[in-house]
Write a structure and sequence with these properties.
The structure is a single chain. By secondary structure, this protein is of the alpha+beta class. It has 15 helices and 16 strands. The strands form four sheets. Strands 3, 4, 5, 6, 7, 10, 11, 12, 15 and 16 form a ten-stranded mixed beta sheet that branches. Strands 1-2 form a two-stranded antiparallel sheet. Helix 2 packs across helix 3 (84-90), helix 4 (109-123) crosses helix 15 (405-420) and helix 7 packs parallel to helix 12. The two termini are 30 Å apart. The structure holds acetoacetyl-coenzyme A. Residues 320-447 form the Thiolase C-terminal domain.
Length: 449
């Protein structure tokens, strides 16, 4: 059968995944997320990832343990961090004989590390793994200009003082201007927020609907903290024990007063504000994965199984689809492979890059024409029960340290699924959906154990 242009095995045909052993989520850990320029201004990616690893190691008694593999990544990485994850492992309490590598899939990095490592466990290549991600916009790498770079390289090669002076004489004042990273898409020059403003307008998402989603994110995250949901997940770090972006006292009235920040310059209705967009954030998260046998042998919990994942990409460059709309295509493909519909899920963890991102995706799934023309279905893909969406808060409230968001979501969802256990006579089931820069998206299904 075919779903949005890709053939997927029919429901009756067993997929390779169904014949493999299980990869289970044992648990996760993270440091509280901090708004950029705040508590972690003096922390590097390596510091934060090491702290998130050490918290996980302490929680599950993994000191000096040789783990099968550790994979993590950062979207904003200094050139000195060749293999950031390996350096973090070497700085942690794990055995130095634990192999580790970096992976980069923009905001989906954390989820992609979970899926890749889970597959290795399913195949029997490794018994245990730690997935993760980290990002710091506070410690963002600043590159030098092309002119200064050329001069510095030539200077390094120059053997005599006169040659060095000759090279230096090429420098112009403009060469000294730094080249700072930004959230712009290289192929369009538009920021993520500007891209989303176009999509938000295309799907006619109102300011009120976006503010309501943002309000619920803060309300749900605050309630989760108050209920102790995160007590086992957070390593206090640099004086923080809660995500610093969380505003338990925000209100729909306050959100309605905030000035629109994206879209005005593009002729789109400007409905996106600092309140319904994620802030730039610093933070790190880790997730311990294992085979059932390894978890049992170490007397560790098995919260949920990583069932399967899917990635999609859209052609945003030519305006065919919105930059952050790839999950709208990946989810239907993944669900078709498992003969599932949106009604078969008990929790939806849809990353809130912007409130408009979540709402545009849901609107696309509910749209008959999108279902027919873009997904190749007979009608609309479906709608979700909103009471199952991001029930313990998501990125709008917690913040979004790009590569660390996937680990936050998987660890939280695994706990929620384990607590729920069964639903309708089957294991509780959760869907993870993460949009990423470059027009990509990664999604996954987890099931309670
Ligand atoms: C990268 C990938 O692969 C995919 C993705 O996830 S895409 C997403 C990537 N992330 C981004 O692009 C980051 C987007 N965000 C931004 O650029 C910035 O946060 C922003 C431009 C939206 C806002 O920046 P800012 O103006 O510095 O925000 P900030 O000062 O915190 O807030 C502005 C005001 O709103 C208020 N505010 C913000 N949130 C609020 C809330 N929930 N409730 C009440 N007030 C709030 C603040 O208090 C502040 O008020 P004052 O001016 O009175 O102090």
């Amino acid at each position: 059968m075919s779903v949005n242009g890709q053939s997927v095995p029919g429901p009756q045909e067993p997929t390779a995944a169904t014949q493999l052993r299980k990869a289970v989520v044992v648990g996760g850990n993270r440091i509280p997320f901090a708004r950029t320029g705040g508590a972690y201004t003096k922390s590097s990616n390596q510091d934060m990832l090491t702290a998130a690893l050490d918290g996980l190691i302490a929680r599950f008694g993994l000191q000096d343990e040789r783990i099968g593999e550790v994979a993590a990544g950062a979207v904003l990485k200094h050139s000195r961090d060749f293999n950031l994850t390996r350096e973090a492992v070497l700085g942690s309490a794990l055995s130095a004989e634990t192999p580790a590598y970096d992976l980069q899939q923009a905001c989906a990095t954390g989820l992609e590390t979970v899926l890749g490592l889970a597959n290795k466990i399913k195949l029997g290549q490794i018994e245990s793994a730690i997935a993760g991600g980290v990002d710091s916009a506070s410690d963002a790498p600043i590159a030098v200009s092309e002119g200064l770079r050329e001069v510095l390289l030539d200077l390094n090669r120059a053997k005599t003082v006169s040659r060095k002076l000759q090279v230096l004489s090429r420098l112009r004042p403009k060469d000294l201007a730094p080249d700072a990273p930004n959230t712009g898409e290289p192929r369009t020059g538009l920021s993520m927020g500007e891209h989303q403003a176009l999509t938000t307008a295309q799907w006619k998402i109102t300011r009120e609907a976006q503010d309501e989603l943002a309000f619920n994110s803060h309300k749900n995250l605050a309630a989760a903290y108050d209920a102790g949901f995160f007590d086992d997940l957070l390593t206090p770090y640099r004086g923080l024990s809660r995500d610093s972006n969380l505003r338990a006292d925000t209100s729909l009235e306050k959100l309605a007063t905030l000035k629109p920040v994206f879209g005005k310059n593009l002729g789109a209705e400007a409905t996106m504000t600092a309140g319904n967009s994620t802030p730039l954030t610093d933070g790190a998260s880790t997730v311990l994965l294992a085979s059932e046998e390894w978890a049992d042998a170490h007397d560790l919990p098995k919260l949920a199984a990583v069932v399967d994942g899917e990635a999609a990409a859209v052609d945003f460059v030519h305006g065919k689809d919105g930059l952050l709309m790839a999950p709208a295509f990946a989810v239907p493909r993944l669900l078709a492979r498992h003969n599932l519909t949106l009604e078969d899920f008990d929790f939806f963890e849809i990353h809130e890059a912007f409130a408009g991102t979540v709402l545009s995706t849901l609107a696309a799934w509910e749209d008959e024409e999108f279902g027919r023309t873009r997904l190749g279905l007979d009608g609309a893909f479906g709608s979700i029960d909103r009471s199952k969406l991001n029930v313990n808060g998501s990125s709008l409230a917690a913040g979004h340290p790009f590569a660390a968001t996937g680990g936050r979501i998987v660890a939280s969802l695994a706990k929620m699924l384990h607590a729920k256990g069964q639903a309708d006579g089957r294991p509780a089931r959760g869907l993870v959906s993460i949009c990423a820069a470059g027009g990509q998206g990664v999604v996954a299904i987890l099931e309670a154990l």
